## 1
Amino acid sequence: MSIPTAILAQLADQVIELPSWAFGNSGTRFKVFATPGTPRTIQEKITDAAQVNTYTGLSPKVALHIPWDKVDDYAALRVFAADLGLALGTVNSNTFQDDAYKFGSLTHIDPAVRQKAIDHHFECIDIMHATGSQDLKIWLADGTNYPGQGDIRGRQDRLADSLAKIYARIGESQRLVLEYKFFEPAFYHTDVPDWGTSYAQVSALGERALVCLDTGHHAPGTNIEFIVAQLLRLGKLGSFDFNSRFYADDDLIVGAADPFQLFRILYEVIRGGGYGPDSTVAFMLDQCHNVEEKIPGQIRSVLNVQEMTARALLVDRTALSAAQDAGDVLGANAILMDAFYTDVRPDLAAWRESRGLAADPMAAYAASGNQATIAAERVGGQQAGWGA
Ligand code: AOS
Ligand code: ZN
Ligand code: ZN
């Protein structure tokens, strides 16, 4: 089966934002393995992100993490990225590394600590004005480890108050996206554990406050596509952090652990209006590459998203609706599975060539010699944050 031209045309709309930290060395609490050629600066991370875009045409944006990607002149960084054909994307705040945040940041009982965390977000917003970024993404490490350790309700109230102060500062064309995660680094409770809490908090703020869904932040067995459908229905799905997980928040290559889940998610995104020129849902990766090379790891990731998007676009929605309405259980299931089992790779290769891109981006990058060049040029690459 070849992909209809109308569907191929829709693939041109796809933009997948790369996280700057994907290009840094990373690992687990047991060991961080260094990879030859790892960037030493944010400029080198952006240069590597540009490689991913050169070979795929899918990733014209790079997300920043503050303070990991701190520079003196963000307007100059924006020009540096633009010269490589990239825009600077989501600004990710960080309130999980300072000793002051041991017992919380935006939820902390001490107003001075809360203000420090709020001020950090004000700084991020100033940076967004200089970089031209649209989204401020907030993920909080706030939570407790033992029952009784904190007043979980009081913490919600303080969170609401802190978020309101941050939201009041964002510009007219900017958005606040609040990410949820049910564990880690806190294990008894986290202050934004689930989509419902994120939804309740952002709904209280206003229209430009939305939920960020990280695919690695759910309990095993969670039906993530249902959450996608519900958030789109409510008009509150702001962005994705794509990655895949076998066990916890593994941050492995999206589509590696469960391609069928990625397909199901993307089907609900498309079905719910979250894809295409009129959609405001941001597709971002949130991944680390612990043992594989980082640039090919990111190329593989964006290709996985594209492949599952193409398969999801292939679902015959008219036939599916008819089968659903008729109570044709197996017929409806077969329509969905037909699309999932379609190998779209040859058509995507031809489509890439027709747009002047490499038919096989992985092979083209490997043949380019870039990996050997950066390995020779760069000594002392950075860890993806924790050492920065
Ligand atoms: C943490 O688990 C969240 O996924 C964050 O979105 C992100 O990974 C972090 O901000 C980067 O370290
Ligand atoms: Zn995330
Ligand atoms: Zn995460």
## 2
Amino acid sequence: MDWGRRHRLSRIFDPRSGRTNMLAVDHGYFLGPTAGMEEPAVAIPPLAPYADALMATRGLLRNTIDPAIVRSIVLRASGGPSIVGPALEDEAITTSVEDALRINAAAVTTQVFVGTPFERQSIANLALLVNEAGRYELPVLGVTAVGKELGHQDARYIKLAVRICAEIGADFVKTYYTDGFEEVVRSAMVPVVIAGGKKLETERDALQMAHDAIAAGAAGIDFGRNVWQSPHPVAMIRALRSIVHDDASVDEAHQMYKDLAADEK
Ligand code: 5RP
């Protein structure tokens, strides 16, 4: 692996823990102004100091974010469909590698829709990104989609989708936590981080999921809604960070969340 790729990855994965606490804020590329992220210029700056990487689109970055506040960027490079259109899986690569380099992204990302009529197209999108980004030693994050079209998926499906991303050349993969996650990590070949998914009922539920994923060998988390839809987003990202980087227990992290939330009042 070239020095440049290693350097970019070290901006995402903190060398002290080897893990990453990413913050996903790219939802607007198909969901528009999602609850809690209507005004990125207001929502993101207080959270940025606690995120190792921001997963975002170029439009959100250029229009709302001061480059000085962000440690690293994982740039969303796919898009096309919207939540009100016929097929969310019908994605194309929308952002060139040249533009990712102008933004000084540490990685670029697209997602695969394994098991849908668009699996070939979405895997070809990932391959294109790997080929193009590879010219500049720019790492690629492969994302395995679930959601409306695919529903909840078990370890068998997640293992399949994650491994396909790695075989196509992704440097790391983002997927969803599931029972049997150790098996997902074992067969992934590359580091695996988890998405948060829809806001869980309680903050403790989200902390528990992050903890279970790390205990099962995940290399980090990339939560969005479970951070910025929390009543106390800064307390939440800091509590999650303590699990990812400091091996905090769920009780310790939850206490940290409650203490920080109380201090805000
Ligand atoms: C969408 C994404 C999002 O970044 C991902 O869903 C993470 O956000 P959340 O934790 O809110 O699910 O990759 O495809």
